[in-house]
Amino acid sequence: MGCGVSKSSEFYSKKDGKDVPLIVVPAATTMRAAVLIQRWYRRYVARKEMRRRYTWNIFQSMEYAGEQDQIKLYNFLGYLVDNFTPSGNLISHIFRDNEVCRDTEWERYFSYENIDVPEIYSGPRLTFPLTVSQVAGLVEAFKNKQQLHSRYVLQLLLETWKLLRILPNINRVSTCQSKEITICGDLHGQLEDLLLIFYKNGMPSQGTPYVFNGDFVDRGKDSIEILLILFSFLLVYPGDVHLNRGNHEDHIINLRYGFTKEVLGKYRLHGKRILKLLQKIFSWLPLATVIDQRVLIVHGGISDTTDLALITRIDRHRYESVLRPPKRKSALSGGQSSLDDDDSLSNISLHNRRRASLTNDKPFGTRDSFQRRSLQDFSATVNQTVEEEQEARRRQGPNPLSSESESDSTSGPDNTNDEWKQILDMLWSDPMAQNGCFPNELRGGGCYWGPNVTEEFLSRHNLQLIIRSHECKQEGYEFCHNRKVLTLFSASNYYEVGSNRGAYIRLGPNLVPYFIQYQASDLTRELTLKQSVGRTERSALKALKEQLFANKSGLISAFQEYDKDNTGRISFNDWAKAVGTVLHLDLPWRMLRSQLVTLTPDNMLNYHSWFNELSWKGRNTEHVEQTVLDTLYKHRSTLETIFRIVDTDNSGVLSFEDFRQTWRLLGDFLKMQISDEAISDLLVSIDTNKDGNIDIEEFMEAFRLVDRHRLERGNTVFITKDKL
Amino acid sequence: MAPKKKEEPKPAAPKAPEPEPVKEPEFDPKEVQIEFTAEQIEDFKDAFQLFDRTPLNEMKITYGQCGDLIRALGQNPTNAEVMYVLGKPKPDDMATKMLDFDSFLPIHQHICKAKDRGTFEDFVEGLRVFDKEGNGTVMGAELRHVLQTLGEKLKEDEVEQLMAGQEDANGCINYEAFVKHIMAS
C-alpha cells in the first residue's frame, strides 16, 4: 500500500499506533451497494416529504374553510338582525350591546360573593390579592386535573378585568438589565404544552418575563385552565407578563370552536356568567406588544394600512367581537356584508386565492379617511407612559364601558370602521410571498400582506422584526419576508399526534431570537418519523373522507354531469375535477387517489358503491330525507353553532319550536328549502325523554358518521372525531 | 507513486461504479421522446403543483427541488444523474434557477427510461456484501460508516433517520426486512 487514495473500502482500527485493516470488501461492489442504498433512501425521504406536505395541506385547507364558514355565518346573522327579519329576533341577543353601563352594576352582575364553596371541594381556595405560591399551587392543581371552583374563577376574572382595563392597547416592554424575554405563540387550550414550556423555561416571574401572543382558547380541552393560569401570573407579575389578543379571543368564534362548550360543560351552574365576563375581558386584552421599540409582537400580522399610532388611540374594548364593526345607524356597505358578498366569496377559485382581486370590493371600509402618520408622531406616542394613558382614559368620560359609538366624541362612523379594520388586520392577517396586500379570502378576515408591506411598515415605525402567530408550522416556527417576519406556534401536535412541534423564543437585549422546540407527548417521542407521518396522514384522510361524504348530493350531481348515460361510472379524471370543484378544497386529488378510491382496471370509478362505504350511525334515520341528512352532516358545525346561539339560557336544551326555527335559519343561510316535514322527521328520530325539548348534545351525537363495514362486522361503532 | 492495480474478484459492471457518467454528451431535452400517457402527465402535474412555491402559482419549481420531485414520483436517480439532466448547474443555481412543467417532462422521462434502477434483489445483494456471517444480518455500525463515507454520502442525521427502529439489541439489522421497509413508501 502506498500513499494515495485507497479504492477499496477498508475498515481500520488503531493498534499500537498502526492502522490495522478489519475487513476488506471488494471496492466496486461496496461502492455499488452504497450508491444503491443511498438512492433508495433519498427516494424514500422525498416520498415521505410529499405525503407530509399534502397531509398538511388537507388539514390547513379544512381549518381555514371552517373559519371562513364561521365568518360567513356571523355576517349572515348580522344581516338578519339588521334587516329586522323574524329569524333575526331569535339570535339578535348576540348583537345586543350591553345594556348595563356602570362599573358597579357589572360588578354586581358578576358577583361571586353569594357563591358558596362546599366543604367537600378539594381544589385550590384562592385569597386575593394573589400570591406567587397560590399561583404555583393553582398550576399544580391543574396538573392534577383539578378544577377551580366557579367562585374563585369569577373572583379571579374580576381582578383580571380590573387590571386589563388600565393597560394600554400596545404593551411596551424592555429588555433592560439583561433580561431575556420569553415569547409564546398559539396555545389553543393545550395545557400540556404550557406546562412543558414552564418546565423547560421556568414559570413567569420578575426574572423571567413572558409575552403570550394570543389564541389561548378553543380546540384544545383545557382552555379555561390556560386562561386562569395566564391571568393569575398577570395579576401577580403585572410588569412581567404580557398578553396579546388573538382572533380566538372572541365569543363568536368560541361558539364554534369549543371554548363555549368547554366552559358550559365544566361550569354548569355559573358557566354563562363566566362566559359573559370573559367576553368583556377578551375585548380588554391588549392588541400588541413592542419590545425595545424595535420588535413588534402581534397575533395575526399587519396590512398596508396598519398604523401603530392610530391603534394606540382607539378604544379597544368596544370591539367585543372583531368579526363585525360596532353598530352604525346606516345599513350601507362597509361593515355589513350583504348576501351577495357571500356568493362572491365562494365563487373565487381557491387556485387564485393569492391573486389580486382587483374587482372585489373591499368589504371592510375605505382607506381614504385615514392619514399616514410620520415617524415622529409615532415616537411621540410611543414614549407615552402607562400613567399618561390611564389619565387619558379617565379623561374620556365616566363610562368607559359604554359601547355606544355616539358617545365617543373622537371618532365618527368613518373612523370606527378604520379602527375596526386596524384590529381585524392585526388579529387575522397572514403573510404571503408575493408583494402587495389583498383581503384574506381563505379565512374571511384580515389581509394577506407581502414583503414590501413589511419593509415599508418596519421602516415607517422604526422597527426591525415582526413576531406573529396564527398559523401552525411544522417546526413550531418559520421565518419569511427575508427574516423580517417570524411565525411562532406553541401548540404541538396541533392537527394530530406527531403532526408538528411547538416552539417558544427567548429574546435578549441583542434582539436575536433563540428557539426552543418541543413536542408534548410521550407518545410522539416513541414514534419514528415514518410512524408520525403515517398517523397524521391517516387522520387527515379520515377527515377528508368525511368531507367527501358530507358533500354526497353535490358530488353525485357533479358526477352525473360527466355520466350522462347514467352508467354509474366516471373516469378518474372527471372524478378529480368534480371533487375539486364541489369541495372547494385546493388539494392534490390525483395524488390522494389510491387512498380515497378504488378504480376498476380501466381506470373508472363506480361512484355509487364508493359512497356506500360510509354510512350513518343513527338507526332511525332511514325515514329521514337523504338531503336533510347530508345537509346536517355537512354543516354540523354551523348547525351546532346556531343551536348554541339560540339556546339563550345555555341550558343545552332547545324547545321543539326553537329547534324548528334553527332549521329554518340554517335553510336561509344555505339558501336551501328544508320542509317542515323533514324537520318533523328529524324530531321523531331523536329519543326525546324530555317533554317538548331536545338535548343538543344528544342530537349532534345521533348524527355521527360511521364506517359501515365495521358496523356490519359487529365491531364497536367507530365514531369519527369531529375535531374540525 | 504509481497507482497499484486493485484486485477485483468479481468482474465489475462494464461502466465504472462511480455515479459520474464520464464522457457522456450534455443532456439535450429536445432529444427526449415523451412516452408518458396523458393520465400520467396529469398525475405529474398534480405533484408538480404540490412542490410549486411561487407566489402566483406559476407552475415552476427550483432546480433544487427537481430531484425531490422525481423521487417523490417514484424514481430513484443518483444525485449525479439529477445534476446531469439539469445540465450540470452551479451550486448557486439550485436555489435560484426555475424549471417549468414543460421543461420538467423530458427530464423526468429520461430518468424513467434509464436502466439499472435496482430491483429488490439488487438491493438485497448489495447489502449481502456486508453480511460477514452470512446469516441475513449486517452490523448497523458498519452500514452507517459505509453510507456516510462512500458514494453519494449521507449525512449523520439522514443515516439516523434511515436506521431508526431497524437495529436489534445487538446493533444488527435484518437486511431483507430493511429493504422492504425502504421500498415500501
Q: How do the strands and helices of this protein lay out in sequence?
A:
The complex is a heterodimer of chains A (about 725) and B (about 180).
Chain A: E1 9-15, E2 18-25, H1 27-82, H2 86-91, H3 103-109, H4 132-143, H5 150-165, E3 170-173, E4 181-184, H6 191-201, E5 210-212, H7 223-236, E6 241-243, H8 251-257, H9 259-266, H10 271-284, E7 288-291, E8 295-298, H11 308-313, H12 339-347, H13 375-382, H14 386-395, H15 413-428, E9 430-431, E10 437-439, E11 447-449, H16 451-461, E12 465-468, E13 477-480, E14 485-488, E15 502-507, E16 513-518, H17 522-526, H18 529-550, H19 552-562, E17 569-571, H20 572-583, H21 593-596, E18 604-606, H22 607-611, E19 614-616, H23 626-634, H24 636-646, E20 653-655, H25 656-670, H26 676-685, E21 693-695, H27 696-702, E22 705-707, H28 708-712
Parallel strand pairs in A: 3-7, 4-5, 5-6, 8-12, 9-11, 12-14
Antiparallel strand pairs in A: 1-2, 4-15, 7-8, 10-11, 13-14, 15-16, 17-18, 19-22, 20-21
Chain B: H1 38-51, E1 60-62, H2 63-72, H3 79-85, H4 93-96, E2 98-100, H5 101-113, H6 120-128, E3 137-139, H7 140-149, H8 156-163, E4 172-174, H9 175-183
Antiparallel strand pairs in B: 1-2, 3-4
Helix pairs in contact in B: 6-9, 7-8
